Amino acid sequence: MTAAAPSALRRFLDGDLWYSFRTSPVAVGAAIVAAIMIVGALFAPWLAPHQPFDLASLSLMDSLLPPAWLEAGQLRYFLGTDDQGRDVLSTILYGSRISLLVGLASVAVAMVLGVGLGLLSGYVGGRVDAFIMRVADVQLSFPAILIALLIDGSARALLPRDAHSDWLAIGVLVGSIGLANWVQYARTVRGSTLVEQGKEYVQAARVIGVKPWRIMIRHVLPNVLGPVLVIATINVAQAIITEATLSFLGVGVPPTSPSLGTMINNGNNFLFSGEWWLVMFPGLALVLLCMSVNLLGDWLRDALNPKLR
């Protein structure tokens, strides 16, 4: 076991993927930015200079302070404060945790649902294939944000009011975004499955009596995951933007657990009164996070494309 790990690491470091990464300045820069923001979000309780959700530590006397380099700014509130006296930098770190959680979890939901339905549709075919693809075609005729709004609103209306909580609201939001984005995975996996099921290894498995579900999971699925990983990487940024849009519209993350979108929505109320930092810095954090993830997704797509090697 100990000898296998260094050899596997050595094979990775000598492989084409690592060479493509370290020779791409854009990919390296995007990875550094993404890593900084992810580490800042994960370790926010230890890295944040203040606890923005501890009511005992907040003071309205410190509300709407500008950034430290402007007049009336204070060094302990480097990026200023909001209308509740919360440190903007600390709130961005905590808000990024919610945005990343919703983005990654919704992509996982969409990927599991889309890969499962695409694999079933491509392998079984017939009426099952026709039904799943017609449902996908209908959903593609509507914008993803509209589907997410519809699912989110319906779920909130069906749930009893006494069952509402922050984590339940986040779960509903994750499910809404995931259900709005499964189609791309399903169509991609279906096309790859149609190609793979005609190859010799699948035919051989059928001849020796391997059950269909076992062929799908153990033989076909590993060979169709390459494009799925690329789509998932790019869709993380799209899911974060969708969450920010829903939160900006007031139907996303609850105000008691604010994300970057909630911060932008709150700061928008003070934009015309001169408190520009309440929108500027959360918006900049959102742009940097999504841009870095998108650039990594573009690099991964090119790196895994054999035609570009």
UniProtKB/TrEMBL annotation:
* The protein, known as: ABC transporter permease
Give the matching CDD domains. TM_PBP2 (cd06261)
PROSITE patterns (UniProt xref)? ABC_TM1
Membrane protein topology class: Multi-pass membrane protein
Give UniProt keywords alphabetically: Cell membrane, Membrane, Transmembrane, Transmembrane helix, Transport
Instruction: Give a yes or no for keyword Cell membrane in this entry.
Output: yes
Q: Does the keyword Flavoprotein apply?
A: no
An example GO biological process term is: transmembrane transport
